[in-house]
Amino acid sequence: MAATGSGTPKRDTYRHGDLRNALIEAGFELARQGGPEAVVLRAATRQAGVAPNAAYRHFADRGALLHAVSQAAMAEVARTMEAEQAALPHVPDAAAAARGRFRAVGTGYLRFAQEEPGLFRTAFHVPGDMTYATDDTAAGPGGKTPFELLGAALDDLVEAGLLPEDRRPGAEFLAWSAVHGLAMLLIDGPLRGLHAAQAHDAGHRLIDMIERGI
């Protein structure tokens, strides 16, 4: 800060080393608290400590910032799913290990939705196509997006002999639809009043159903 002639503090020009990422981080925190509706350029610039016009050097409009924040939130979904898989106990049986990884994809997804509803809503505030589902900016530490993690888990089931190869095509859409539907019912629908134990049980029973169905 510098002082003006009147003695009133005046802020020096702020030059952030990586303003684009600073704005995404600010938008990410706004989304955590209020979902996609809370991600607005003026609020993000205020949180980042820069003038509102500075955002337009990196984002053409609010939609561009929201898309970047959505991808960052999607990467956090992937991170949680990977953590769920990493926490699995080691089992020597390949089929049991494949089942565990598949189930962890679903339980990690549901856990994120319940623990971070604002980010979960933002992650799926996306364009009306599948382009984002394999975009590197939506990938977790292991380099896969949530959709790719699900696909890899299904491929593992095929390799382990648990999922017939002729039933593999399109299986990710069915599994994803079911788990996402429960996630939305738990955070925004009539199931949001369930106790944690009931929600946990519902998730495991749904994954049982998906496993049997595919």
From TrEMBL:
DNA-binding region in chain numbering: 40-59
Record keywords, A-Z: DNA-binding, Transcription, Transcription regulation
Keyword Secreted: no
Origin: domain of life: Bacteria
Keyword Transcription regulation among UniProt keywords: yes
Domain (HTH tetR-type) ranges: 17-77
InterPro entries with a match to the protein in the record: Homeodomain-like_sf (IPR009057), HTH-type_TetR-like_transc_reg (IPR050109), HTH_TetR (IPR001647), MT1864/Rv1816-like_C (IPR025996), Tet_transcr_reg_TetR-rel_C_sf (IPR036271)
Record protein name field: TetR/AcrR family transcriptional regulator
Organism: Streptomyces musisoli
